[in-house]
Amino acid sequence: MQFMLLFSRQGKLRLQKWYVPLSDKEKKKITRELVQTVLARKPKMCSFLEWRDLKIVYKRYASLYFCCAIEDQDNELITLEIIHRYVELLDKYFGSVCELDIIFNFEKAYFILDEFLLGGEAQETSKKNVLKAIEQADLLQENLDFQIRLFPGVLGPNVSAESSGLFQS
Amino acid sequence: MPAVSKGDGMRGLAVFISDIRNCKSKEAEIKRINKELANIRSKFKGDKALDGYSKKKYVCKLLFIFLLGHDIDFGHMEAVNLLSSNKYTEKQIGYLFISVLVNSNSELIRLINNAIKNDLSSRNPTFMCLALHCIANVGSREMAEAFAGEIPRILVAGDTMDSVKQSAALCLLRLYRTSPDLVLMGEWTSRVVHLLNDQHMGVVTAAISLITCLSQKNPEEFKTCVSLAVSRLSRIVSSASTDLQDYTYYFVPAPWLSCKLLRLLQCYPPPEDGAVKGRLVECLETILNKAQEPPKSKKVQHSNAKNAILFEAIALIIHYDSEPNLLVRACNQLGQFLQHRETNLRYLALESMCTLASSEFSHEAVKTHIETVINALKTERDVSVRQRAADLLYAMCDRSNAKQIVAEMLSYLETADYSIREEMVLKVAILAEKYAVDYSWYVDTILNLIRIAGDYVSEEVWYRVIQIVINRDDVQGYAAKTVFEALQAPACHENMVKVGGYILGEFGNLIAGDPRSSPLVQFNLLHSKFHLCSVPTRALLLSAYIKFINLFPETKPTIQEVLRCDSQIRNSDVELQQRAVEYLKLSSIASTDVLATVLEEMPPFPERESSILAKLKKKKGPGAVSGNELEEGKREGGELNGAGERPGDSSAIGASNASTPSPSADLLGLRSAAPVSAAPPSAGSLLVDVFSEAGPAAPAAGANDDGFLSSAPPSVVSEDPAPPLPESDELLNKFVCKNNGVLFENQLLQIGVKSEYRQNLGRMYLFYGNKTSVQFVNFTTTVSCPGELQSQLNVQLKPVDPLVEGGAQVQQVINIECLTVFSDAPLLNIKFRYGGALQNLTLKLPVAINKFFQPTEMSSHDFFQRWKQLSQPQQEAQKIFKANHAMDTEVLKAKLLGLGTALLEKVDPNPDNFVCAGVIQTKAQQVGCLLRLEPNAQAQPGEQMYRLTLRSSKDTVAKRLCELLAEQF
Questions:
Q1: Which of B186, B387, B600, B628 is most buried, most CB within 10 Å of its CB?
Q2: Cross-chain residue pair A16–B249, CB shorter than 8 Å
Q3: How does strand B793-797 pair with strand B809-818?
Q4: Any bridge partners for residue B191, and if so which?
Q5: CB A13 to CB B67 under 8 A?
Q6: Is residue B629 pLDDT above 50, yes or no?
Q7: Among A125-134, A149-158, B250-259, B847-856, which is the least confidently predicted range?
Q8: Helix or strand or coil: residue B927?
Q9: Could you give the CA distance from residue B27 to residue B36 in angstroms, rounded to a whole number?
Q10: Nearest Cβ partner of B1 from A47, A150, A165?
C-alpha cells in the first residue's frame, strides 16, 4: 500500500498515512485530487478505480471516507477488508467510534494504525493482539490521569454527522 | 457527547481543537493558529523548563496544526527531547511527530538515531516497537545506514518477542525498499525464510511481506520459501473456520496471510518437486471448490475475504499458465461473477479475465462470455466498470469475433465517457488493423472512427490509415471512393479533411472516371472545406492541390487561380504563403516531366511497428500492454506492410517547411534541466533564400531539403565518426557533480541525460529531442571506448529508434559497468540525416570515475588516521586554484555531495574546510579516497582561492579526481 487517507464528506482530511517518500507539495496535490475524485462518485459505484498508475480502494463509513492507494499487483478485496478491520479496531477502542473521536484523538488513530499496518503491509491482523498492544501502552502512561470524557461544552456546532457511529446501519 | 478520550487526555489540546472547529472562516482559523504558534514558541523559548507533559501537549498541538495543512518550522528539538523521556506516552508523541515531520537536518537525524538506538537496545518490547515503527515510517537513507545492520539481528534472535519481530520484519522491508544496497541479508537468509514456519500467525503475516519483496529481487537465494509457503497455505486452506481463532475473519481462516502466501508463490515458476506441486494444486482446487459452497455468513466481509483469496489463487493459476484444467475452472468462476449483483465483483472479474484471455488454454473459454461483456459495456452504470469491459473485449478479440467487437466498440463510442474515448479510439484502430481480412472493412472502420469521435482521433491513427492505403494498391480505389463520399457530409471533421486531402491527392485519379467524382468535382469538394480548416490542414490541402495539377492537368488553371489569390500568396502565415508561392511557381515553370517526377506517388512506407500500439502502451503506462501483445502487433502489422513513419504533409510533398520548430517548451521533460534556449532556426533566412532564387529548383541549401523539391547535391559529408566537439570537455565538466541535465544542444538537436549509479554499475538514459518539425532519419548512435578505456569500462548501448519525428523525443538506455579505474570518458557518436544532409557529431559521455563513489561516513579520528596512512607522495594530488564562483557554503556542500562522497561534518578542526570520504567501486577493486577542500573565504572577491587535496590508495585516481574537481568550484 502506498498511502491511506481518511476524509469527511466535506472533503476535510482527518488522517493521512504515507508509506512512500513524497514531498509535502506532492502529498497535498494527491490529496486534493483524490478527495475530489472519490467524493464525485455515486454511492452504488464500485469501490475500486484506476488512478495514475495506482489502484484506489475506498469505502465510506457514515461521514468518513477511507481511501487506500495500492499497487498493480495488490489485491483490491483484501484491501477493502484492511479498511474494515481498521474501522473495527477504532470502534472497539473508542467504543462505537465516530468521526469526532478521530478528530479529537487523532494521535490514537495513528497509533492504532501503526500497530495494524507498518510500511504499508499488514503487521498484525488479529483484533485482540492489536488492541492488547495499544492497551498495554495506555497502561504504561504516567499517573497524570486525566481520563476525561470529552469536555462538554467545548464541542463545535454541527457535530451530528461527525458524531454518528461509523458502524451505523 | 459520545466521543471518548481514552488514555491520557490533554485538555489543552482538546480545547484548541474545538476552537479551530468553531472558527467561522479560514481567516479566523489562521488567526487562531498563529496565536497558538506564538504561545507555543514563547513556551519553548521561555526560561522556565517545561515538564514532559506540557512539552508533549505542545508538540501534539504543533502536529495537529501541521496535519491541518499548515507549515511548522519549529518544535523538532522538543519532539526529539521527548524521545528520551521514560514516560511512554511522551515518547510515543515524540516519535509520532518525528514520523510525520521528518526534517533532513543532519544534526537532528543524529539525535533521533541516538534515541532510536537507545530504545532498540532497551530490551523493553514496547519501546523497541516504537523505535521500529519510527524507522519504518521515516524510512530514510540515514536511518537505513544506521540500522540496516542491526534489525536483521533483532528479527531472527531467539529471545525477541513476537510483536518486536513483526515490527522488525516490516521495518526491514521499508528500508529495503528505500535503500536495497544497505540491507544485506546474507547469513540471515535461511533464518528469515524459516519465519514462514513460526508458531505465531502474526509473525508469519509480517515476515512474508519481507520475504516476498526479497524473493522478487533475489529469487534464487530465497527459493526454499516455496515449499514452506505451500505447506503453510495447505494447512490454512484445510483448517476449519474456527481453528485459527482470532486470525479467522468472518469465518474465513487467515485471509490476509493466505493472500500473501499466494502472492509470494507468484514470484516463482510452478514447483518442480512433484509432491509440493501436487499439494499446491490441491490447495488451489479447494479454494475453487469453496467458491461454490454456500456462504457461511451473509456479511459482505465474509464474501470479500473469501473472494480475495479466490482472486489471488486465480492470479497464481494465470501466472503458472500451465494447468489447463485450473485455467478453465478459473474462467468459469469469473464468468459467474460477471453477472454478480456486487459491482465490485463484476469489476474484478472483468479485470482478471483480461489476463486469462491471453492464455492459449483459456482464450476460447473467455470468448464464450462475449455477450455478457458486451452487455456490461452497454449497461454498467459505473464508468470504471465499463472501462474494464472495454479492456476485456479488446483482450478477447481475435479474427473470429473482430467484426462484432469492433462494431460494438464503435457504437459504444457514440455515447462513451469523454475520459476513455481516446483510448477506445486507439483500441478500435488497432483491432481493425490487426484483424483486417479485407481492407475495405478497415478503411470503413477508421473513417467511421473519425466520423464518430473525430476529436479523439490522434495523429497516429490517421497517419496509419494513410500508410496502409499507400502500401496496398488493392484498397486505394476503394479508399478514394469512400473518403470522397464521406467528405460530402455537410459537416465533417477536420481529420476527415486531412485523410481526404491526402488520399485524393494521391489516388483521386482512380475515381475520376466517374463524372460524379470528376477531377473538378473532387477539387471543389476539397476546397469547400478549406476555409473552415486550421493552418496545418490548409497546408496539407495546398499540397493536395499541387498533386492534382500533376494528376489532372485540366485542373491547372482553376488551381493556379486559387494559389494566386491574395488570401494564399499573401497569407500572413509563413508556411501557407510559402507553399502557395512555391507551388504556383512550380506549376508554371516546370515541364510536365519535372512535375511528374517531383509529384510522383508516394513510395510505400517501410515496415515498422504500429505507432498506434506504441501510443496505447504509452497511454496505459508500462505493463498495460503485455510484451506478448506488442510482439503480436508487430507480426500482424507486418502482414499489412505496416509502417510507422509519419505520412505527414511535410514528408509527402516537399515544401520546405522546416522553418517552424514545435514550440514545445520542455522538449526533454527534464524539469531539473537547465532552461532550454529555444532559439528558432532561422526561418527568415529560409524565406529570403526562396525569393532570391530564380526558380523553385533550389529553395534552400542545407538542412531542410527533403528530396522532393530540392536539387541540392547529395551530401558528401564523411560517414566516419566526427572528432569530438571542441566543447565536449566543457560539457563533460557540467556533469561531474550532477547526474541529470542537458548534455548538448544545437539548433536541431537537444540531448538530455539522466543517470543513476549503484556500486560499480550505472544506467544512463539519453533523450534525443528533435527540435525541428522535420524527421531525422537513419538516426544511429555508437559509443566507443578509445585506447585502454576499452578494458576499463564496459558500455552497452540499447538500440535506438532510427527515426525521430519532428518535435519528438526518443530515449536510449546505456548500461555501464566499471571494470577498473579509468580516466578518459567514452565517446558518443551521433549520426542522422536531416533533410538530405548527414549530421555527424561526437560528444563525450558524462561518465567519470567519481560516479562510482560509495559514500563513507567516518569519525574525525578515523579520517585522520587514514589520511596519514596515505602519505606517500604518489598517493596525493593537490591543486591550488582560483575560485570561479562565489564561495557559498551550501553550494559547495551540494557539489561535494553530488560528487558522490560522504561530506564529513565536524572532522576538520577548521570549520571552513570541507572533508569528504568515499570508496570507488569497480569490478576489479575498491579504491578508498579522501578529499579536503580548503577555501580562503576571507580573501577579497577575485582573489579567493581553493586548495584541493586528494589522497587515494591508487595514484591515478587521486590525480584524475583532482583534475575533475578543480573545474567545479
A1: B387
A2: no
A3: antiparallel
A4: none
A5: yes
A6: no
A7: A149-158
A8: strand
A9: 14
A10: A150
pLDDT in tens, A96-124: 888 899 999 999 999 999 999 999 999 99
Which residue on chain A is closest to B210 by alpha carbon? A121
| CA B585 – CA B698 distance, rounded (Å) | 12
For residue B375, the tally of other CB atoms under 10 A from its CB is: 15
Separation between Cα atoms, residue B112 and residue B789, nearest integer Å: 45
Question: Which positions ≥6 away from B287 have C-beta within 8 Å?
Answer: B237, B309, B310, B313
pLDDT for B46 equals: 81
Q: What amino acid occupies position B365?
A: A
Across the range B871-876, mean pLDDT stands at 82
SS3 (DSSP) at A58? strand
Of residues B392, B313, B328, the one with CA closest to residue B360 = B328
Q: Residue A3: enclosing H or E segment and its boundaries?
A: strand A3-8
More confident site: B951 or B672? B951
* Spatial separation of the C-alpha atoms in residues B214 and B141, rounded to whole Å: 18
Q: With an 8 Å Cβ cutoff, is B24 touching chain A?
A: no
Tell me the average pLDDT across A136-157.
Answer: 46
State chain B's mean pLDDT as an integer: 83
B816 sits in which H/E element: strand B809-818
Would the annotation count B451 as a binding residue? no
**Contact between B484 and B525 (Cβ < 8 Å):** yes
Buried b (16+ CB within 10 A) or exposed e, B838-870: bbbbbbbbbbbbbbbbbbbebeeeebbebbeeb
CA pair distance B262, B233, nearest whole angstrom = 8
| Cell numbers that stand for A43 in this block | 454511492
> What CA–CA distance (Å, rounded) separates B302 from A81?
9
Which set of grid coordinates corresponds to residue B41? 514558541
Pick B726-847's CATH classification: 3.30.70.360, 3.10.290.10, 3.40.50.300, 2.60.40.1230.
Answer: 2.60.40.1230
Q: What does the pLDDT read at residue A141?
A: 56
Which residue in the block uniquely carries the three cell numbers 489540546? B13
Residue B692 exposed, middle or buried by CB count within 10 Å (0-12, 13-18, 19+)? exposed
A100 and B22: CB-CB below 8 Å? no
Q: From the CA of A28, how many Å to the nearest CA of chain B? A: 8
Q: Residue B606 has which C-alpha cell?
A: 517501410
Going by C-alpha positions, the residue among B397, B400, B427, B398 that lies closest to residue B412 is B427
As a whole number of angstroms, the distance between CA B854 and CA B342 comes to 54
pLDDT, mean over chain A: 85
What is d(CA B483, CA B510) in angstroms, rounded to the nearest whole number? Answer: 12
**Under 8 Å between Cβ of A115 and A123:** yes
Sheet containing B776-784: give its strands across: B776-784, B827-834, B837-844
Choose among B618, B667, B645: nearest CA to B803: B645
- Whole-number percent of chain B with pLDDT over 70: 87
pLDDT at site B9: 66
Contacts of B760 (CB under 8 A, 6+ apart): B817, B818, B819, B852, B921, B922, B923
Distance from the A68 Cα atom to the nearest Cα atom in chain B, whole angstroms: 15
* Residue B50 identity: L
Whether residues B255 and A94 touch (CB distance < 8 A) is answered with no
Contacts of B382 in chain A (CB under 8 A): 42, 44-46
Sorted by sequence, the CB contacts under 8 Å of residue B391 that are 6+ apart come out as B350, B351, B354
Q: CATH number of the domain at B850-967, please?
A: 3.30.310.10
Note whether B646 and B805 are within 8 A (CB): yes
Cell of A112: 492504532
User: What are the start-end ranges of the E strands in B161-266?
Assistant: 248-249, 252-253
B201–A154 CB contact, under 8 Å: no
Look up cell 487561380; give the residue: B561
* ipTM, two decimals: 0.89
